[in-house]
């Protein structure tokens, strides 16, 4: 399809990794879209992001250039013998008890600074595609159209909306509230993290060469993950704490006294304690969406964290958003008129939901294992390493090309069953070109 022939309009809500990836994928399929972002500019929360082979594959299948540009910003481990290692598992107590190596001969460790990834994604999207300062406050579906209202009072109408508005996104409520109200709010994972970032030089001064490669230091109910970012010039630190209490109040980061953080993290090797100088005394609660019974309601569908936010224990959340974007952009690339959008969303839900929800569930299990509290693993670091070496390849070498193929075939079958356009179909394609969006009277 040439984008000038496009007879349907698409809005994406949210310009995080999920929303931007979808926009990139759609552009490659010659499908135009408008992205609405609440923030005044592109922004990235947090520092590092690790992406596995499935994420890189999804990027390449959407747009070769995307994968190539990521290649230029990604950072691996420093020691050549650790290039194929995702993490080294060690005990976090004094002396760093030996654990094991989570690795695969076909795997190459890669992570990036979130800002660098955002820059890459931004550069692949034509200026003007993303409208900033546009916080969506309401969505109304009527006659196979979606009316979007923003905080500034503007209203626009689209044929379909893809919610990429993150874990607390309002599109989740629109899709689930009437049928599955209990699944609207994100659920607490019973863990929170402290985050920090420092220069490689600072980190090495305290912990030596341990700073140069990705490592996860474990002890009961606590964990410490660190890995190089920014071309190896900086180190990203995430400290995990198991929390047996509910998270009360807002689902947002909460400052604590530095002394409280230090007390809480007692028991770590003194080198890790030393690195706490670079960790903010701010608790980030981890929430997830373990059950999402559908990603679609009529002409609104969910993509990325708003659909399947995951605890970060397998570093796989954003990768699932990239996979979503691949499958959805490919089926939307086959849509010829608005009446086929429903089929595209149904197929997307069919293909993507089982895979993404499985990753959410497993990431939570892995959290329990890495906190050394899982009854099957206890504090046996070798057994934990073995389990990770069995589990992670199932995420990394998932057959995305097969998913795309099945999605395209299913879409074609569904469309073949639709009444012929122009002969009694629910929607008729107008000869007049539809504008990409239709601002309504205030
Ligand atoms: C500590 C931690 C570490 C992680 N590490 C990894 C990792 O190593 N690898 C990995 O793959 N994943 C990781 N993840 C997960 C990853 O960060 C997320 O899966 C990913 O960033 C989600 O992207 P998204 O685009 O779906 O949502 P978001 O990044 O949340 O983007 C949503 C966007 O929507 C906008 N928005 C929200 N509401 C509205 C509205 N009403 N109107 C308009 N715009 C709106 C927001 O401003 C935002 O820009 C980690 C997560 C955490 C918490």
TrEMBL record:
InterPro entries: FAD-bd (IPR002938), FAD/NAD-bd_sf (IPR036188), FAD_monoxygenase (IPR051104). One of its GO terms (biological process) is secondary metabolite biosynthetic process. Gene3D superfamilies: FAD/NAD(P)-binding domain. It comes from the Eukaryota. GO terms for molecular function: FAD binding; oxidoreductase activity. Residues 422-442 are annotated as: Disordered. Residues 11-363 form the FAD-binding domain. Pfam families: FAD_binding_3. The keyword Calcium does not apply. Keywords: FAD, Flavoprotein, Membrane, Oxidoreductase, Transmembrane, Transmembrane helix. The keyword Membrane applies. The chain crosses the membrane at residues 7-27. This is Putative Salicylate hydroxylase. It comes from Glarea lozoyensis (strain ATCC 74030 / MF5533).
């Amino acid at each position: 399809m040439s984008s000038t022939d496009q007879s349907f309009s698409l809005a994406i809500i949210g310009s995080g990794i999920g929303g931007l990836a979808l926009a990139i994928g759609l552009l490659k399929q010659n499908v135009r879209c408008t992205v609405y972002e609440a923030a005044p500019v592109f922004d990235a929360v947090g520092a590092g992001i690790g992406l596995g082979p499935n994420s890189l594959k999804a990027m390449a299948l959407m747009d070769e250039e995307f994968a190539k540009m990521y290649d230029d910003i990604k950072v691996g481990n420093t020691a050549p013998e650790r290039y194929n290692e995702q993490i080294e598992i060690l005990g976090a107590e004094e002396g760093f008890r030996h654990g094991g190596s989570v690795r695969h001969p076909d795997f190459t460790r890669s992570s990036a600074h979130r800002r660098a990834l955002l820059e890459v994604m931004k550069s692949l999207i034509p200026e003007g595609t993303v409208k900033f300062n546009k916080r969506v406050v309401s969505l109304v579906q009527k006659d196979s159209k979606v009316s979007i209202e923003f905080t500034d009072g503007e209203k626009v109408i689209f044929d379909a909306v893809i919610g990429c508005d993150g874990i607390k996104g309002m599109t989740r409520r629109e899709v689930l509230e009437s049928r599955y109200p209990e699944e609207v709010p994100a659920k607490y994972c019973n863990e929170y993290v402290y985050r920090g970032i420092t220069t490689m030089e600072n980190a090495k001064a305290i912990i030596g060469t341990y700073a140069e490669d990705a490592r996860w230091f474990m002890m009961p109910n606590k964990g410490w993950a660190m890995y190089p970012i920014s071309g190896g010039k900086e180190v990203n630190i995430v400290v995990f704490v198991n929390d047996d209490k509910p998270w009360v109040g807002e689902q947002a980061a909460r400052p604590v006294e530095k002394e409280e953080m230090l007390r809480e993290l007692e028991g770590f090797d003194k080198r890790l304690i030393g690195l706490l100088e670079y960790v903010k005394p701010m608790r980030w609660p981890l929430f997830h969406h373990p059950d999402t019974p559908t990603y679609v309601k009529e002409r609104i569908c969910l993509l990325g964290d708003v659909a399947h936010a995951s605890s970060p224990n397998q570093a796989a959340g954003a990768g699932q958003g990239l996979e979503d974007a691949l499958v959805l952009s490919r089926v939307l690339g086959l849509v010829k008129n608005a009446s086929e959008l429903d089929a595209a969303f149904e197929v997307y839900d069919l293909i993507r939901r089982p895979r993404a929800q499985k990753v959410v569930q497993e990431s939570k299990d892995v959290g329990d294992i890495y906190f050394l509290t899982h009854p099957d693993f206890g504090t046996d670091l070798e057994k934990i390493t073995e389990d990770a070496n069995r589990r992670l390849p199932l995420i990394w070498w998932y057959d995305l090309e097969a998913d795309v193929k099945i999605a395209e075939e299913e879409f074609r079958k569904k469309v073949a069953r639709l009444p012929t356009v122009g002969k009694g179909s629910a929607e008729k394609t107008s000869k007049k070109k539809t504008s990409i969006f239709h601002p309504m009277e205030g």
